[in-house]
Every structure is written in structure tokens, then in C-alpha cells.
Design brief:
49% of the residues lie in helices and 13% in strands. By secondary structure, the protein is an alpha/beta fold.
Length: 315
Amino acid sequence: RVAGLKVSQHNRSGQAMGKAHVAAFRKYGQDLITIFSDTSVLAEAMGTTLYYPEDDAPRFDQPAVKSPEDAEKIAAANPQTDGRLPVYLEAVQVANAEVGEEVFVSCCYAMPFTTAAALIGTEHFVKSLRKDPELAHRLLRVSLDTALRFTDALLEVGGLPVPVDPVASCSVIGPKQFEEFAAPYIAPIIERIHQAGFPSVLHICGLSNLIWNQMADTGAKVLSLDKVDLEQVKRAVGERVCLFGNVAPAETLLYGTPQTVEEQTRECIRKAYDNPGGFIVGSGCEVPLMTPPENVFAMMDAVRKYGRMPLTSPS
């Protein structure tokens, strides 16, 4: 919106994507540029097809795996050539060239659990966890291979990898499934990021209250959280991790007013400013496309206004 582009133009051009994020940084002055469009980009590079609306995010269309036999044919993607992965790498380079001395340039992409779901379809994948775990692990292994390759490619061009795993949410699976099918495939990516000297961020959308300790066990240094109470997370794992969140994307940022945005941002700070592992204010998940600019400014201004204060009460 800042660059005056249709979403379809942004999604398919590294130059357009990179310059749009630079323009947004110049307008809003946030502390992290986040290159992102959708969570199916790795699966698309391995054969899943997406539908591209003119002015909205790409959507799942056809899975790469239509039968268990198809899973044997899926190969890890090459970040330099396959799908839109080169678009993301170019966008990181474009943004870094213009503002890399001022701000970190990160790139969000899906963890293996979410990518595997996009290879076969989320409903079929979640059913396979119980009915055909061998198939699930096969898809997870190839998704991990692709994620590691893309992580390395991002690091090579100076990008900060920020992996996300929305389908591994407690809104979809439980702690036992997370322990067997998600966590083992998150940890190697976290370790790769640490080996490069960067702190790791792990974002899981929706509810995550049943897996906070398991998320911290992956080795992630920062937990990016959505629909949870920051005080509860602080008590559970605050000694182990930095917390990141969680102004409500739709209810507050999209549909709220500058006043309600300021109030909720202040409340997030009140709850988590003293987290032993640190605290970063942000939206709970991605900021919706049609969010009024005045609401984004309200969140930024509230952080500058209250971010250094030891807020101990909501008054």
C-alpha cells in the first residue's frame, strides 16, 4: 500500500518487494523489516500450485502430493532457481542495499510442519499424523531439507531468517503431535541460524499455551506470540526466552482506533516489560493488508511513549 502496488506485483518481483519494504520502513520507522507474502512459498517451490488474486495474498490451489506415491517424487527445492524463492532473495538484497546499515532485513518463511501441510493439503496432512505417520515424516524431511537450503541462502545475502509455523498451532494440533512431528524439524533450523551468529525467532500463530515450554526447548531465543496472555507466558518461560508480541492484528490494528491501539500496546508493555529474557513489542501476527496507517503509527508512537517506563499498573 505504501508503494502503490497490487499484491500480485509485490509477490512476483524482488525489486518491487524490496523497494516496497524500504518505502514502508521510511514511512513507519520500525526496528525490523520483514520480507513476507505467504507461508506456502517453500511448498510452491517443490510443486504445490497457488492461485494469485490480483490484489490479495496467494492461496493454496493444488497440492504437489495427490497420493502417497507422489511423496516419493518430491525433491528439495533450489533457492536460486525454484518457484519464488529467488524473488525473496532479491528482495532481501534490494532492501539491504538501501537501508541495511539502518535496520535488520529479515525474511519470514514456513517451518517444515507448515510446508509439509501445504504439499499435501492441511486436512490430509493432519490426518496422516495418525493414519500414516511414515508419509508425514517423509514430507517433513524433504521440507526440512528445503528450509535449511533457504536458510543458508538468506544468510548468504545478509538476511535474518525468521521461520514461522502457523499450522503447528494448538488451534490445529496438540502437544504430543507437536513433540513428534513439529519440534524435531524446527530445532535444526534454529541451530543453523545460531551457527551463523544470529538470534532465532520462532513464530506460531493462534493458540500456543500448551506448547510454550516445547517451543522454548527448540532452542529459539525469541518466541513471537499471537493469541495468548503475555503475563502467563512470562511466568512459564520468561527466564528462558525473549517474548515478542502481541497487539491483536485484526481486532485492534485493523478494526480498532488509534486510541485502542495505544491502549493495547501499553497493556502489552505493562505485562511483559520486565520479562527476564527481554520483550519486543509487535503485532501478534502479520499486520492485515487494509490496516489504517494511523493505527500503525499509533502502535509505533505508543512504544516510543511507554517503552522505557516500568509500567506496573494499567492506570
